[in-house]
């Protein structure tokens, strides 16, 4: 095995990507004395960070490839109204991703991947608390109620089985099993169609767009340059530093570079040995008025619809659409989410939608993110979190900053080697 090249502690670091993961990495690098420049081709929270559900749920953060996924069947995933959608004209790259995804959707591989997540899940809130203590001016909110609601007890059994598997893997999560009437007592926004529910304890949530912008403001206030409209087209390791070139002709040299570009991680990472396919798993959302704004998140697992209270409105999010990140918003998907939620919510005006949005979650075939040093000792990857970039983004940044500045890989990051 070749020796790992030793490099001086980097002082000037470029972070490519201004979403939750990139900005958290920048913030924790600043804590360790690094001078940081953040570059993004569009702007802060322009990718998957802005319009997602904003759940901080380490209790149910699990690998996306799971045996239940294989039960959907071909006809289901080809339907635009399906919670999981694959366009009928899939390209070779997407087919390679789907084949790998299917190979990892087995009980044994799920248990292995879950074992990788557990140490991260246990520390996830710790990183958010560090950001709060350091002055990030956006709070995490305790989910006083977090209801997973179903029409029937039979539907509910799927999540109860998953919670049992999570517990068997070594992760604790507290929950109550409720009837439909008990769920409506806790959350009056649920309709009479709800016949069974689970109330999760110990979780949190945020307004993700507000939070990520507050994190960006903190990074900037602590001395970082934050450059938007910077489309990075070339990164070259020159032996004693890394040169970063943008489409506009900017050309700067840094001691180290972090690739936190979400779905586009492979475009810059491939030359540094990152071969894992990172596929866009697109999610949709919108916000609506509702007579009774829930006191915490509401989840309809059978429909894959997630609802989050944001001030006086309810954000409704859902779907997993495996297609190009650049594809336009598909209004059929927005309509499918609205029609799935309509009979399950009371007093919700699902036709008064605003803030319609689509964003691309960066998904990997094995369901594990890519975090750590690449083939270059000066280039690091931080991405591929799938649905969990908001929950695990701050801890990813904290641990990666430690690795970059000390040269030592934290134990929690070992399963997420970007060269695997």
UniProtKB/TrEMBL annotation:
Protein keywords: Membrane, Oxidoreductase, Transmembrane, Transmembrane helix
Keyword Transmembrane: yes
Protein known as: D-amino-acid dehydrogenase
Transmembrane segments: 12-29
Organism: Micromonospora qiuiae
SUPFAM superfamilies in alphabetical order: FAD-linked reductases, C-terminal domain, FAD/NAD(P)-binding domain
Source species, domain of life: Bacteria
InterPro entries assigned: FAD-dep_OxRdtase, FAD/NAD-bd_sf
Residues annotated as domain FAD dependent oxidoreductase: 12-402
Organism taxonomic ancestry: Bacteria, Bacillati, Actinomycetota, Actinomycetes, Micromonosporales
């Amino acid at each position: 095995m070749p020796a790992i090249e030793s490099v001086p502690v980097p002082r000037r670091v470029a972070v490519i990507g201004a979403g939750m993961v990139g900005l958290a990495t920048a913030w924790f690098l600043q804590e360790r004395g690094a001078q940081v420049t953040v570059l993004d081709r569009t702007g802060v929270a322009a990718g998957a960070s802005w319009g997602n559900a904003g759940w901080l749920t380490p209790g149910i953060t699990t690998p996306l490839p799971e045996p239940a996924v294989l039960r959907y069947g071909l006809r289901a995933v080809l339907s635009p109204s399906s919670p999981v959608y694959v366009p009928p004209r899939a390209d070779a790259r997407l087919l390679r991703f789907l084949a790998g995804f299917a190979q990892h959707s087995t009980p044994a591989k799920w248990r292995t991947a879950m074992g990788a997540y557990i140490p991260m899940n246990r520390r996830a809130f710790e990183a958010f608390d560090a950001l709060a203590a350091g002055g990030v001016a956006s709070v995490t909110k305790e989910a006083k109620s977090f209801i997973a609601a179903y029409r029937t007890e039979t539907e509910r059994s799927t999540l109860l089985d998953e919670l049992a598997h999570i517990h068997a893997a070594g992760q604790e999560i507290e929950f109550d099993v409720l009837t439909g009437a008990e769920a409506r007592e806790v959350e009056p926004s649920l309709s009479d169609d709800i016949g069974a529910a689970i109330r999760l304890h110990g979780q949190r949530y945020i307004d993700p767009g507000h939070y990520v912008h507050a994190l960006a403001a903190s990074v900037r206030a602590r001395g970082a340059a934050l450059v938007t409209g910077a489309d990075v087209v070339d990164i070259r390791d020159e032996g004693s530093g890394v040169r970063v070139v943008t489409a506009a002709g900017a050309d700067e040299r840094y001691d180290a570079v972090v690739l936190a570009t979400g779905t586009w991680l492979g475009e810059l990472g491939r030359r540094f040995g990152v071969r894992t396919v990172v596929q866009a798993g697109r999610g949709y959302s919108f916000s609506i008025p509702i007579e009774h704004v829930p006191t915490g998140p509401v989840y309809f697992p059978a429909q894959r619809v997630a609802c989050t209270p944001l001030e006086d409105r309810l954000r409704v999010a859902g779907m997993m659409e495996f297609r190009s990140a650049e594809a336009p918003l598909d209004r059929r998907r927005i309509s499918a989410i609205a029609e799935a939620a309509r009979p399950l919510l009371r007093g919700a005006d699902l036709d008064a939608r605003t803030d319609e949005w689509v964003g691309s979650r960066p998904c990997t075939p094995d369901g594990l993110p890519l975090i750590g040093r690449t083939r270059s000792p000066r280039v690091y990857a931080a991405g591929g979190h799938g649905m969990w970039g908001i929950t695990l983004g701050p801890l990813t940044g904290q641990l990666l900053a430690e690795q970059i500045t000390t040269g030592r890989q934290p134990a929690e990051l070992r399963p997420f080697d970007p060269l695997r």
